[in-house]
Design goal:
Low-confidence stretches: 1-15, 60-70, 72-98
Helix content: 55-70%
Radius of gyration: 23 Å
Order of helices and strands: HEHHHHEEHHHHHHHEHHHHHHH
Strand content: under 5%
Shape: globular
Number of helices: 19
Number of strands: 4
Structural class: mainly alpha
Strand order of the largest sheet: 1-4
Length: 508
């Protein structure tokens, strides 16, 4: 078979990428275990934040009697409290296991932007009702897709129909880099991710609007598969599929993860307390985006099975995405301050919950995707299968957690938000060290880690299902956590915990 004609690769990608074995050397094994720990901690922490928000909404709904039993209330507020080689930093966090929290806000005020003449024109608000209705219709079938569609509601409130511009730019960028590839010495066509600046641009646009990131990454992935069939004349390999899946994750996951862990769509800051929360947003949310995207970018090598040069830019991605997420927080504040009526009309405050059948199918798909990616990191040993099955258990149990007895004292002692992230990260790191001390630095270390590291974190997740909320008085007043009873202790403690998390995560 003749070798297909290919477009020359950029200068820094001309060398054939070496085969990358995530368990072949002590350094690679250490990076793989770090990857696993980061993924599990992120998955557990973000899912817990989303579950806490949902439990709070349901709790308020059932106690107040104002919401239907088949609706999920999106009350205003948030659930959370306060360069190296790719071979050395391979990381593919388990983002497929994450639950998502829908953006939450209910506003009744009018802002200066709402009164602009252009804001009342039909063409400017052509997307308003359509996006609102689409989110409501899609959410029962795919909460993740509903989150992605609704992610840019604040941009539509500010820019109206012009909010489509980021999506168009991302689409063009993704399509323009179809066929990023090279031919190895033996003639095999290997798919490569887009040039790192192009992928960074798509990811940055995805931070501001997850729909833009999805369209850009989807254009590249689908177009590349079509190119492979038509030009290379063959079926993409499993490594190629994993690589394209990694590109899709990078395009949409950083913003979704960050805003699910800590909701940033709320009423605008009018006093010191709300201003403080915005300052915490500016610290926590960029960190979450930075941490997640850096791991995903450096993890592309493990997914493809090749030592890709884009992994050398993981730090560049992290810094750029952190800056973009900080700008996103400020734009959310601007939308809530100057366009509250438009934002309220575009952003649903109540959606139908997905059915048990939908959740079962979704969980099965998540399990399949995780096993596909896990095979690249750890193979498909019995430990990996058992670890994945254990990870599913709390998700299934969580579907029925509202029927479990609630323990206020358990709710008081279990950390939430940033403190929970610190506890989970500390437990994950210590458990990983214990597994290495017991098993040894052997090729099967990652597989054993995938089985053992999640166990204490999953135990905390199950405990949280029995500690959903505190006591409620007869007049409807809900108990406040001890850490929040003194505002200054709460603020100072939040700063200390944030610094500790940054240190433990290796940010500094």
């Amino acid at each position: 078979t003749p070798t297909p004609e290919v477009t020359p690769a950029p200068a820094f990608e001309k060398a054939d990428p070496a085969v990358y074995d995530p368990n072949g050397t002590p350094q690679a094994r250490a990076a793989t275990v770090k990857s696993l720990t980061t993924g599990v901690v992120l998955a557990v922490s973000v899912a817990a934040a989303a579950a806490s928000a949902a439990a709070g909404a349901k709790g308020g709904s059932s106690r107040g009697g104002s919401r239907g039993s088949h609706k999920h209330s999106l009350a205003s507020g948030n659930a959370s409290g306060a360069g190296s080689s790719s071979a050395a930093q391979a990381s593919t966090p388990d983002f497929e296991q994450l639950d998502v929290g829908q953006d939450a806000i209910t506003l009744s005020a009018m802002g200066a932007g709402d009164a602009l003449a252009i804001a009342s024109t039909a063409w400017f608000g052509a997307l308003d009702r359509r996006s609102h209705q689409t989110v409501e219709r899609v959410a029962p079938f795919s909460p993740l897709l509903a989150k992605i569609i609704n992610d840019g509601a604040y941009l539509r409130a500010i820019l109206g129909v012009f909010s489509l511009v980021p999506a168009v730019i991302a689409l063009v960028l993704g399509a323009a880099h179809i066929g990023a590839h090279q031919v190895l010495a033996h003639g095999q066509v290997v798919l490569l991710p887009p040039q790192w600046l192009a992928l960074l641009a798509i990811t940055t646009l995805g931070v501001f609007d997850a729909s833009a990131g999805l369209l850009g990454a989807l254009a590249f992935a689908v177009g590349t598969v079509i190119w492979h069939f038509s030009v290379a004349g063959g079926v993409p390999s499993v490594g190629d599929v994993r690589l394209l899946g990694g590109v899709m994750l990078i395009g949409i996951a950083p913003g979704v993860i960050a805003t699910t862990f800590r909701g940033i769509r709320r009423v605008h800051a009018t006093g010191f307390d709300l201003l403080w929360e915005r300052l915490i947003d500016l610290a926590v949310v960029p960190f979450m985006a930075d941490w997640s995207v850096a791991g995903m970018v450096s993890g592309l090598s493990a997914l493809a099975g090749l030592n890709l040069s884009i992994g050398n830019h993981a730090t560049d991605f992290g810094v750029a995405i952190a800056v973009a997420m900080a700008a996103r927080v400020l734009l959310e504040e601007a939308a809530a301050r100057w366009f509250p009526a438009r934002l309220n009309a575009i952003n649903p405050d109540e959606i139908d919950e997905p059915s048990l059948v939908q959740r079962s199918v979704s969980l099965l798909l998540k399990f399949s995707v995780w096993m596909l990616l896990a095979a690249a990191l750890m193979g498909l040993s019995w430990q990996v299968w058992a670890g994945a099955a254990l990870a599913i258990f709390p998700a299934v149990v969580g579907w029925f957690s509202d029927r479990f007895p609630n323990s206020p004292w358990l709710w008081r002692i279990l950390p939430q938000g940033l403190p929970a992230l610190f506890v989970n990260l500390g437990i994950g790191v210590l458990t990983g060290l214990a597994v290495k001390a017991i098993v040894g630095d052997v090729p099967a270390l990652a597989a054993w880690s995938s089985l053992i590291i999640p166990l204490p974190l999953l135990a905390l997740s199950v405990a949280g299902m029995f500690g959903r909320h505190g006591n409620t008085t007869d007049d409807g007043t809900e108990e406040e956590r001890f850490s929040k009873r003194n505002a200054w202790i709460y603020r100072a403690g939040g700063v200390v915990v944030l610094i500790a998390v940054l240190k433990l995560a290796g940010i500094f």
